[in-house]
Write a structure and sequence with these properties.
Oligomer: single chain
Number of strands: 17
Distance between the termini: 37 Å
Bound molecules: magnesium ion
Radius of gyration: 20 Å
Number of domains: 2
Strand content: 15-25%
Structural class: alpha/beta
Shape: globular
Number of helices: 13
């Protein structure tokens, strides 16, 4: 038993040299608060890497760290922890992580919150509770989740943030020379054409490389089917997010019409959201995002996917590495793991903000060692707290 004494929320903002997904398109403007919309997928992005950190301290001096996806207005996530979640968790036991997660999930049902910002926020808390639990019993989190199955965690390189197709192919080849042989490109920035980009990458990388395409929810189902067929002439590994997340029937229609697996799931947070898509066989490969699910819900989702014989390729979003470490701990347990996403332009840069031995080299992730998650933010990260700016 280890009783929670305080819960602290720390929204952080880290400058980037190049915006996520590469330089801004002509005519795109940035707001005074640092946001812009990419015309390719009509989605808002920040000029910064932003996330929310959570620090839980127990009465016997244990510290647990969590983090969630919060690249748009992380102050909103912080407010709900400071006002509501933190005070309600004081006095609870960190060795009850699943119970605490379900209590937090349940308490906003009547308010109509089953996902969104609220679930992202409780994900950070859930990860911090698991980290503290691991430190309390002196075990790595993967052991508490059922045991370590995988010694090797295969990684795919995600994103090729260069302005021209030729440069993107060259960048992929550089990564290939460093021992990586699976890649994902983003159709939102395939300005020369998505099928042409697939053809050029296949030509440059050879026949054995796994190539995935993130289609960013951009298409109607018939459009997506045509485009996936065009890419699959060059052996597409996974077609990610082909049509809008609200269009469950469209996702299913695409999944049934194409030969390659459809990747779905980075925007979904619970089994309640996965189940109707799994029942329709709309998901070929599940891509849960730890920074939105937290550990407790991530494990529930992966267990549900296993019942549908569905492989897992965890998504890796923008953070300093704490929810990424949690995702690696959960992933080494899974019997149906295929790859873990490696967002090199975020992961490598942001290792400067954490104390950990976690790394990604020669095509694979290395799980951080130590009790709990094996990662903590350093002073440089804490200096990036938005309120201290
Ligand atoms: Mg994606």
């Amino acid at each position: 038993m280890s009783i929670i004494q305080s819960v602290q929320a720390i929204p952080i903002r880290i400058p980037r040299d190049t915006p996520y997904l590469g330089k801004l398109e002509d005519g795109v403007t940035v707001t005074d608060t640092g946001y812009f919309v990419r015309p390719g997928n009509r989605s808002v992005y920040s000029m910064y890497d932003q996330s929310l950190l959570v620090k839980i301290t127990t009465a016997d001096g244990i510290t647990g760290w969590g983090e969630c996806v919060a690249f748009v207005a992380p102050q909103a996530n912080a407010a709900i922890i400071r006002e509501v979640i933190g005070p309600l968790l004081v006095g609870r036991d960190v060795t009850d992580p699943v119970v605490l997660y379900h209590d937090l999930y349940d308490m906003m049902r009547v308010r109509g919150f089953f996902g969104g910002y609220y679930h992202d926020t409780i994900s950070a808390v859930d990860i911090a509770v698991w980290d503290a639990y691991g430190k309390c019993v002196d075990q790595p989190v993967c052991k508490l989740l059922g045991g370590r199955r995988h010694q090797i965690l295969p990684a795919y390189v995600s994103g090729l943030p260069m302005p021209t197709l030729d440069e993107r192919v060259q960048l992929a080849k550089q990564w290939q020379a460093r021992g990586f042989d699976a890649f994902k490109f983003a159709s939102a920035v395939s300005h020369e054409g998505t099928a042409d980009e697939m053809a050029a990458l296949r030509e440059g990388l050879g026949p054995k490389t796994d190539i995935l395409c993130d289609m960013h929810w951009k298409h109607s189902a018939p459009e997506a089917i045509r485009l996936i067929d065009a890419m699959d002439r060059y052996n597409l590994c996974v077609a990610e997010a082909p049509c809008r997340p609200e269009d469950i029937q469209g996702q299913a229609d695409v999944a049934h019409a194409v030969r390659c697996p459809v990747g779905i799931g980075e925007e979904l947070r619970t089994t309640f959201e996965y189940l109707p898509r799994l029942e329709k066989r709309a998901i070929g490969v599940a891509q849960p995002e730890m920074g939105r699910t937290g550990i407790s819900s991530f494990m529930e989702i992966c267990q549900l996917c296993r019942a549908f014989h569905c492989n897992i390729m965890p998504h890796a979003s923008i953070g300093i590495g704490i929810f990424q470490a949690a995702s690696l701990h959960a992933s080494v347990v899974l019997p149906n793991l295929q790859y873990h996403e490696y967002q090199h332009s975020i992961f490598d840069k942001n290792l400067a903000f954490v104390n950990t031995d976690m790394c990604c080299k020669n095509g694979q992730f290395h799980l951080p060692t130590g009790p709990g998650l094996g990662i903590e933010p350093n002073d440089k990260a804490l200096a990036c707290c938005i309120e201290s700016a």
